[in-house]
Amino acid sequence: MSGLTITGLRADHGGSQVLAGLDLTVADGALACVLGPSGCGKSTLLRVIAGFHRPSTGRVALRDRTLADDRTWVPAERRRIGYMPQDGALFPHLSVAGNIGFGLPRAGRRERVEELLELVGLPGLGKRHPHQLSGGQQQRVALARALAPAPELLLLDEPFAALDAVLRADLRAEVAATLRAAGATAILVTHDQDEALSFADVIAVVRDGRIAQAGTPDELYHRPADAEVARTLGEANIVTAELDGDSAATALGRLPLTAAGAGTGQVLLRPRQLCLDEQGSVRARVLRSHFRGHDHRVELAPDPDHGLPERLIAYTDTAPPEAGSTVRLAATGATHPMGGVQDRVPVG
Ligand SMILES: Nc1ncnc2c1ncn2[C@@H]1O[C@H](COP(=O)(O)OP(=O)(O)OP(=O)(O)O)[C@@H](O)[C@H]1O
Predict the structure, then answer these.
(1) Is 38 near ligand 1, meaning CB less than 6 Å away?
(2) Taking every annotated instance into account, which residue ranges of this chain make up the domain ABC transporter (predicted)?
(3) ipTM reported for the complex, 2 dp
């Protein structure tokens, strides 16, 4: 069943168009991530869904209810949509329980608050005030408050942006588990690709006010529609290849294709697919590398006669030779043909 359906959505701010005919479907119970560069319209999209910003045209429907179209505008408070802003925005003068129970009917309120404190992993902290909690705990209270009225859809606008990397990863995993336990449909806005890849059932990449591609994290990472989507999800080497049905001949070797292709085209090689190999067909100079704990990120300049990009990125398990050394490179795994290539370097 379709939880949220958006069709032909256009929205503007002060006369300039931000959303330009956007279509998006999020299945009931799914966790979706909206990903895109700063200013592409992610928050505007959430605000339209929440009912805080009126679109110029298009339709927004939640299950079988139309929330907005040319004739309909359901006000925010009647949408049954929860909204969790970046900073959590807790009421400082209310206790944790007061924050979570705010606006709930008196009957059953205390039980519901207890249930939510349990769900977000803060049992027994109902009497504290927000200033007596850590940043991560405050975000969990904000999540409990957003879930309290059992919304049909929960919108999270960069809810982890203010937290440090470790806390962020932990809380992201907890929130995903909490949302699944609550059976909630949720949309998370982020410009953090790791967040999108680890959190989402479905990722929608926004570009020029529309969805450039939507799909599972695996689809978008390994089978992006074009070079720009590929780069939105992580570092990418885009190389020229001769496509021959189910395989591609590249300067780095012949590789199986994830989708059939023919003629001269461009294919995707993620940095983990490049390896330093004495038998490799490409000579390259190490430009620089750095150790990242789990691997080394290596920038390489291949010999110009291979027709490869000026710079390739490889992630290797073993340390590469020092900058300036010459190595040989090979590629492994399957490669994906890039359709309708518009190889723009992402902004921001
Ligand atoms: N209230 C407003 N008035 C005028 N212009 C606005 C307003 N809010 C947003 N904009 C503009 O609309 C565009 C989209 O903004 P939006 O906040 O939706 O982008 P975003 O993708 O969420 O960005 P970020 O990742 O930086 O939060 C931007 O160009 C922004 O300057």
Answers:
(1) yes
(2) 4-233
(3) 0.96
